[in-house]
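Structure tokens please, single chain.
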Amino acid sequence: MSNGLPAIGTWWNTTGRAHFAAEELPGAISEFRTPAFVVQEGVGGRVGIAFGGELHLPSGNGVPGLSGSYPCLGVLPALYPEWLGDRGFLEAHGVRFPYATGAMARGIASEELVIAIARAGMLGFFGAGGLSLPRVEKAIATLQEALGDTLPWGVNLIHSPQDPELERQLAALLLARGVRRVEASAFMALTPAVVRYAYSGVWRDSAGQIQRTNHVFAKISRPEVAQHFLAPAPQAMLDALVHAGELTPYEAALACELPVAEDITVEADSGGHTDNRPLVSLFPTIAQLRDELVARHGYRRPIRVGAAGGLGTPGAVAAAFALGAAYVLTGSVNQSCIEAGVSADAKALLAQAELADMTMAPSADMFELGVKVQVLKRGTMFATRAATLYHLYTRYSSLETIPADELERVERQLLRRPVAEEWAQTRQFFMVRGPHEIERAEREPKHKMALVFRSYLGQSSRWPIDGTTDRRLDYQIWCGPAMGAFNAWVAGSFLAEPQNRTVVQVALNLLEGAAHVTRASQLRSYGADVPASAFAFAPRPLA
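Here you go.
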């Protein structure tokens, strides 16, 4: 045969139907929940797809010549969005779909968003980053009351290099309140807080298998960071936690047989903290590293690798699963949904974003280190203004050494008040949040300058949440290119308007579309002349 595939039998058109014409294939591909047969119009003929009918296996050599029959090249079983990822992920976390929503900071990934996604059979993480401990505790109480112990959900545990005590207190709160899943993000190395959370409550069952009480989803974008989470925690760190009474000797002993995390989220080009890596390069690298470390440590429990970053269309989600992702995790696209904890004004800006409307800007939490975050560029001037502050920080030793004209511009355009007033407010904030920062600032003028500039950066992320429209030009909206791709995909559909974007409809359409694209790819792999239009999936209201 021209496609090189031998027939496995004969499909007999008894009560079925076959489709060969290019204009018929898109509609037939959309029936991916129905088992199908890949058939051919005779030797060297067109390859198509058939439903129903009967499959007759060949007897002896050759294909039986039955009236209304076609050589059958293969069988395509029913395909469901639920089955696109790793079944082990579904079982381990008690979800229906291999889909999670990321913990967008400052409560943008709100309680409402997490509740909606959990009730739809998916996994959501509350965005605890940048929030006070009482605010996080309130969110946990809301989630526990709404979801109980039957529906899974999680909370963000973000690395806080400037305030390790806050990170420690947050981990302690999560443990005390019985939060069983965390999304560990922005970590550059392991810390006692994340290690304590990971191994607290581990135990060995009657069959000799180690069971976990808590699950860490490590969001990483570098192999050297992934390696920390894929290996058991360092013995010295475990010993220190035992000495501090934060792990028992029994837990620390079992920890030596388990990686810190059994769910690794490979984060490609995304909103917020990102290394801007392409998923097609990053994911295989991390998956290979996972395989090497599983073999090296002799783990008997599987480690699942999921994908995040740039997932704003069905094709992107299908590609992630094709790479081997156990699950997908979305972020930027959820920020424009009605449940997201961000203002309608900011959502309107997000809904207008195009693929190239993102840029990198200095981050508030790691300003002095030169770390950047990806933000929305269209409709704001935040990135340019934040870059100006970082330029001044690297060029001058103190606020007093900045030339008067440049400092006046900062006060007029960015701070909108004298530096002295900005410092007074910043000082008041850190007297509660971290008095040690004030002590250092009084010794080091450059650190004082950093705190003042970080004050603007911190407030700029709250203004789009609160909808402070007179500061729209200073909105810091964390956003990746997935947002622009999503907007292009949904243009002209019911999801084009932000008021119609629910997090569940977005998720279901991405998954449904990914299954459609996967079926089109399956058929094309048999040599069918699948038209480009067959890979397109138009958003539609889904139950």
